[in-house]
Amino acid sequence: MQPNFDKQSQRFEFRQKRNQFVDALSPQDRALAFSKIPSPLAQYLLPGKIVAGYIAIGSEVDPSALLKQAHEMGCGIALPHVTSRTAPMRFLHWTPGDDLVAGPFGLQQPAENAPTCSPDIVLAPLVAFDDRLMRLGQGAGHYDRALSLLDQAVAIGLAWSVQHAPALASDIWDMPLDAILTEKSWMTL
């Protein structure tokens, strides 16, 4: 076991690792990472499927190129819409290039009057992930609550390889992912 096997300590540690890793990337390497949909992900992106992504903050993986390509392949695109730490997160329809509004926690999101949708594929940001495909998020539980209601959706975490931990602290309500995509690999159980 790690000496700091609690979520707060792990968030601090892995945010630092992620920030240092991304700061050390050349602009070219950062632009190339996650710029093309890999074949394991492409198998899910069938025309008519709804893909939920997010607008990256700071050193998070930026899924914008993946979302644009999925849209070009005939997928509908959704982004999360958050109103507070405790209110459930909704997924709202969005087309790449549409305007976004400022939300809480520094989020950029569709306006609240955008149509609600239920995603088939969820590309989720994360702070860290482990060998069980457990995801350590920001701490508000938005994705865990949303994924618990989307039992048919495929949940794929997007992460830099340095965000991997052999094991993370987890609670019974934490939802495992179906796969992880890093700049180096595709991981499933």
Structural summary, described in words:
There is one protein chain. The protein is an alpha/beta fold and 189 residues long. It has a single domain (7-187), classed as 3-Layer(aba) Sandwich (Rossmann fold). It is 24% helix and 20% strand. The protein is built from five helices and twelve strands. The chain has helices at 7-24, 27-32, 39-42, 64-72, 142-149, and strands at 50-52, 76-81, 90-93, 101-102, 108-109, 121-124, 128-130, 135-136, 154-158, 164-165, 179-181, 186-187. The protein has a seven-stranded mixed beta sheet. A three-stranded mixed beta sheet has the order 8-7-10, covered by helices on one side. A two-stranded antiparallel ribbon has the order 4-5. The longest helix is centred in the first third of the chain and has 18 residues, at 7-24. It is globular, with a radius of gyration of 16 Å.
Quick summary of this structure?
The protein has 189 residues and is α/β, with parallel strands linked by helices. The protein has helices at residues 7-24, 27-32, 39-42, 64-72, 142-149; strands at residues 50-52, 76-81, 90-93, 101-102, 108-109, 121-124, 128-130, 135-136, 154-158, 164-165, 179-181, 186-187. It has a single domain (7-187), classed as NagB/RpiA/CoA transferase-like (Rossmann fold).
